[in-house]
Amino acid sequence: MGKMKYEAVIGLEVHAQMLTDTKIFCGCSTKFGSEPNTQTCPVCTGMPGVLPVLNKKALEFTIKTGLATNCKISSFSRFARKNYFYPDLPKGYQISQYELPICEYGYVEIVVNGETKKIGITKIHMEEDAGKNIHESASGGGNYSFVDLNRAGVPLMEIVSEPDIRSPEEAVEYMKKLRTILRYLGVCDGNMEQGSLRCDANVSVRPAGQKEFGVKTEVKNLNSFKFVGKALDYEIRRQIKVLEDGGKVVQETRLWDSERGITESMRTKEEAHDYRYFPEPDLVPIVVDQRWLDEIRASLPELPDIKRKRFVSEYGLPEHDADLLVSEKALAEWFEEAVTLGGQPKVVSNWIMVELTKLLNEDRITIDECNLKPVHLVVILEQIEQGKINPATGKALLAEEYKRSKNIIGTIEVTLPKLRVHIEAIINQKGLVQISDGGAIEKAVDDVIAKHPKEFERFRAGEEKLIGFFVGQVMKMTRGKANPQMVNDLLKKKLS
Question: In 3-state terms, what secondary structure has residue 422?
Fold first, then answer.
């Protein structure tokens, strides 16, 4: 008898650190990387008798996220105390939300293998972050643990999905989509390395076709797309093996060990009642009036899904191009600025996806950390279109301008006329003007054919792919300046 087929059921709890200047219930800074315990006060260190006050910006950011993910915004919600004891939780409880969250019943759409799928969002609620434990071994022996409370009280959104995810690939796409939305809204920087976006994954398996869910485990604190995919893949295979060997999956919390590529048991899972939730007595309920909600809705930017559809209809871009361009708001804006300055949409898109992306990847930076402006690309493309330079020279020029812009501190303001003069001067100084003189190109073609009689015979015998070899040799002889189209046409004529 063949082995039973299993299906995974996954739900993600994504924690997004909000980009507010101050903490959720006090005026302490949320800046990352400061000296330990320098961004604390009696409120966020949990001193007796202090009173929290809600940061209005954190509430606004949560509502924005709810609207962007199609949630219903509650006109009445409240905070709850979640009681548990941990060294970096100074009060012995966390202020969170429980039965009355601010956002509920939303969804986002993801595309996996060309198919669009809706992933439901159960709720989005606000809560405060805990501090951070630092474990060190002393040189004279003994182990020490230190507590840094700079992060205690930093505002978080917890975005809880429905168990609609069926594979590690879908989980990664869902996380990427959420990160894109949060960055478009400017409510979270999405920096997974610094921990400002992380997730806990609930995962179970069941025989294919079965309606009831299997027993789930929770994999904690996944802080990269790669780890989300790998941890889920491992956990799904581990659970299937347990069931196939006749065992039972235990409900527990597990940790992902990225070094060894496995999940390990951390503790058996607490149920909600273990946290002894009750309404937070020090904070009044949150009432959101319709006028403020309408103002927040009106302030939303054009979101990735809408922008993607517009790029396809307005600029005639293929969906693949539109997907890549809208993945980062700054990239989409760079593209649109280039098109506004006169660039052809598909040509601009190709150069961004290949040439610009290559340069950014080499330096491991994002488009918003790059000093090269859309106007640089537009002027270079104009020169190619006018036949002054060929595409190969254009690529070299773009790389050179990118390198030059790296040394400029601060923002550079460049106008189209100024840059035209600058680029034309470089082309003339370096003798980069494209050779479009038929006689000069014909001479180069004849010389190359004369120098390579064996390849010429092989081409005549049917090895047509050798045309690339001959083009390369002519370009080499003309120091990359020959008009490629003329070279191709002449070679085809002569070789045939």
Answer: helix
